Amino acid sequence: MSESTYTVTGMTCSHCADSVTKEISGIAGVQKVDVDVDAGRVTVFSDGPLAAADMAAAVTEAGYELVAS
Question: Which of 28, 3, 18 shows the shortest CA–CA distance to 64?
Answer without folding.
Answer: 18
